[in-house]
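User: I'm writing a tutorial on reading structure tokens. Could you give me a worked example: one chain, its sequence, then its tokens, then a sentence or two explaining what the tokens reveal?
Assistant: Sure. Here is the example chain.
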Amino acid sequence: MENLFLVCLVPPPAIVEDIDEIRAFISAKFNVHESLKRPAHITLYNPVKVTSSMQEQQFFKALEEATYSENFKQIVKNFSSFPEHTFYLDVEQNAGIMNLHAQIKTQLKPLKLLTSKDNFKFTPHLTLAFKDVKPPTYYAIMDEFKDRKFKREFTVSGFSVYKHIDKKWRPFKEIAFKLPSEKPKPLRLFE
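And here are its predicted structure tokens:
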């Protein structure tokens, strides 16, 4: 058994439609298509390979432990990039998304699903074009969008897990937040 999972935030359908329209425009105008193979999403944890049913149970149990969070507003605003290969919508950093990422990372770390080289600085973003973007195309896309504005806001009340099936990322599980006050307290011998 071997499964590939992606932990992410997926904006509401109306916002995804707007994002997909931008991605389709970029794909048609600049002949880049890789981003269209993936759903519009904000990665919270790099894709991980799970190789046994026991490891999969541990993975989802750890994710359940990362759900004690208040709902938060998330803003996706304007365009940015990782030079010279990735063009994206900027995801505004706020306490909600940064804490959620940190909780997921903390809970999954003991499972050692990522190599040390996958331990990256978290820069929340929503990719519009990457992988098949070469420097000349990157600069053309940047020029096309330099004066354009974009802003959408949505409430985050949980996160998604996608599974790689038949060479596509497909929705697998939605994990809703639980109130932080409901988190079980560690048992102590002396109070």
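What the tokens reveal: The mean pLDDT is 93. The radius of gyration is 18 Å.
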